Amino acid sequence: MSITELPPVTAPVYERMSEARKAEVVHELCQILGPRYVLHSPYDLTLYEYDASIDRSKPEIVVLPSTTAEVVAIVKIAARYGTPVVPRGAGTGLSGGAIPVYGGIVIAFSRMNRILEVDYTNLRAVVQPGLVNLHLSNALNPQGFCYVPDPSSQRSCTIGGNVGENAGGPHTLIYGVTTNHVLGLEIVTADGEIVEVGGWTYDTPGYDLTGLLIGSEGTLCIVTKIIVRIVHLPETVKTMIAVFDMMDDASNTVSEIIASGVIPAAIEMMDRMILAAVEADSHAGYPIDAAAVLLIEAEGLSESVADQIEQIVNICNKHQARLVRIAANEAERQALWAGRKNAFGAVGRICPEFYVQDGVVPRTKLPYVLGRISEIVEHYGLRVGNVFHAGDGNLHPLILFDSQIPGEVERVRQAGHEILQICAEVGGSITGEHGVGMEKQQEMALIFSDVDLRTMQQVRMAWNPSQLFNPGKLFPLPGRCVEVKQL
Amino acid sequence: MSITELPPVTAPVYERMSEARKAEVVHELCQILGPRYVLHSPYDLTLYEYDASIDRSKPEIVVLPSTTAEVVAIVKIAARYGTPVVPRGAGTGLSGGAIPVYGGIVIAFSRMNRILEVDYTNLRAVVQPGLVNLHLSNALNPQGFCYVPDPSSQRSCTIGGNVGENAGGPHTLIYGVTTNHVLGLEIVTADGEIVEVGGWTYDTPGYDLTGLLIGSEGTLCIVTKIIVRIVHLPETVKTMIAVFDMMDDASNTVSEIIASGVIPAAIEMMDRMILAAVEADSHAGYPIDAAAVLLIEAEGLSESVADQIEQIVNICNKHQARLVRIAANEAERQALWAGRKNAFGAVGRICPEFYVQDGVVPRTKLPYVLGRISEIVEHYGLRVGNVFHAGDGNLHPLILFDSQIPGEVERVRQAGHEILQICAEVGGSITGEHGVGMEKQQEMALIFSDVDLRTMQQVRMAWNPSQLFNPGKLFPLPGRCVEVKQL
């Protein structure tokens, strides 16, 4: 039968459980986990109704398993009662991936947070999904190693969450995203089977299910163990800022650096609004009157880094950088990065509410798209700041707003939607690293045809026919009804 | 329903067509393609009954389409008649991926061999599946760019075939395999839909179907267009050989180079038997009395390469290399590589028939596994040569044999099977880059559990429920019956 002849995959809408039913489920879960690790009072559940996006929805039960066997038991109980299951790392996601749209059971992985094995010779580590991203590198650094993917939330986000969303970070530019650093997974399927996909080596035979599952946002399976690549720390790291009076000069510098064949470890861009916020917050030494600053990092062998830095400085100067400054020592370097990594928090000083968009465009389109973003946001009477992975063309406009003003939330959403339309129009993508979740379901149709989406949904049906795993995510829905979080 | 409760996915066995039926199908295909591009005489079909593996099976019809629309039409005709469809690049595959086990229609992509687009600024190219791998880099080199994956067969193999098998090559060590260099595909599904997966950017949202399809060996879809990454040519490339009197010293050198944090672009190893064959064939300057030679390449910025080479030389010397020689110029460098890349052909001078195995082991297990390979092959009264991607732990033992000796082919297969058992035992994989095809279906069970394999088969059923795409491949079969090719 043709995909187009198949009935459309309907997204089921799950009812919340009756109190009696819920008590039964809680009782069964307590038998497995002990009552301490089964949360169900309204007070306890409040913490789990939101992530870092603007949506929210309360789970009915939260469980905190400590073993894969417990996860299997939870999945089987949920399947028996037909209640949804939503995995959750640290709740730092920006697209609503961990929000239980239809209630059900949230599996919080905070207790499954151990490093199970490190093999320094073969450059592998095996970790549990609840491990905080930065904790892995912290454990590896003294031996001279690290785990590469470094989302800005790395001090709190978990590697399991990173796998679910295929997270990126500043160093994506040279090292790729999470999928490039994960070789194998232990997963629990919708029917409670434990399956191992991928493995210790690079190119395991058969279908690349590891690749398929990474970034599947909890809709296909529950991940219980992760085999990651680790790498040697670079011999030398040099970090610099280049200050520009014109945004376009900064954008063109980025294009020319990459086109010249130099691929730095990271190229981040911050605009005037963000610089003011960051500097007020962290005093990292960023100029507050510039139009844009590039934060550029080169790493590798000392000689190679010196050579790269020289080329980068020349290109910056050619594009009218008014100042190029290389961090003189590790403290200065850390201060520059702290400013960048805390940028979202720093914006909180200017405005209590903001909405982060995430799109990707070809680097050569940066000047055009940044201009269009300003126009769109202005049209809706809003303000925007830009802080993003410029080397990848991965934009993060932060739209400031005040939800007390009637209609403002809707205007923010509309502006966000139009920004993604521009990204799609110029041949880019509607998300770089934050995922689709609840936020960008409708926008999937901007870059995928009906047949493309139906093909993906057939894959979902093969894995998870009842759609109990993270229902109501990833694919366009006819309509949805959840609260918007008051920040 | 649980995966284990589902009826096992049965591999259909297709009957060959009656002459009348075949004439009908040929007629329909001629309407679409013109008679020139529909081959069906026994003479014409002979060329398409084998690849570079030891199996063979004749197709019933071979078609040579020139457009995606023609591929759609072919797939729809095949579906209507219930006859298998097998895509074929250059037939250089080593695991029988392009052999039509049950006859049916072979789609040969030799006419869809164009470079459709090159975007030097954003480092992308769009190509057709029949493009010969090396032709892409040849086209890019004058502008200072190249396409990285370089299988040893790159002078004849096609990028479509590379996608089907997720091909590697010597430079996999630092740059990864085909899946790391392909960003998007245009495919034709089993029901004749044209679907685009992935795209121009790195991290498209939704399921990573590009990753799933790469390496799916023609069992899920027919690829008609490929978006690849291109890269700048490195500023400097240095190539050296290190000569050892003991195999273990060479193996330990490999482990220590990687463990030291230097990741060269390639580390290839050749043993005494291979060296003799290569030197007799190409006079590249390899010593014929050594136990093992490492061919090591470093590339990047000049200063970095100089530094790497110095560290590598020190490690080689520490492990009793009796000679380390750096290619003095490009001609010498090319000669060393020509020797390595023609090694399989050179072995043909020593022995008319050989069987190439392909397995992966952790680098630290190389001395143990190489020892075990010798023992196994000796046990069966056979001879073996080793030429392989040592940096990846990706072995390629070549077992020499003579199919005129009764029972010899069976002994070769048995030795090959036992070698893969060792690879699996030490935590490796049954294939590094040559695929599963018809050759390693049974060995899939060495590294995947029943549930793992059932999970993969469910994915296949979702894409291709009638299993007309390349049937009889990839998964263990109860039994099979094909001829063994006389080399």
TrEMBL record, chains A, B:
Name what cofactor the protein needs.
FAD
Q: What's this protein's name?
A: FAD-binding protein
The protein's UniProt keywords, in alphabetical order, are: FAD, Flavoprotein, Oxidoreductase
Query: Does the keyword Glycosyltransferase belong to this entry?
Result: no
Question: Which Pfam families does this chain map to?
Answer: FAD-oxidase_C, FAD_binding_4
Record-annotated FAD-binding PCMH-type domain positions:
54-233
Q: Which organism is it from?
A: Ktedonosporobacter rubrisoli
Superkingdom field: Bacteria
| One term of GO molecular function | FAD binding
Entry keyword rRNA-binding: no
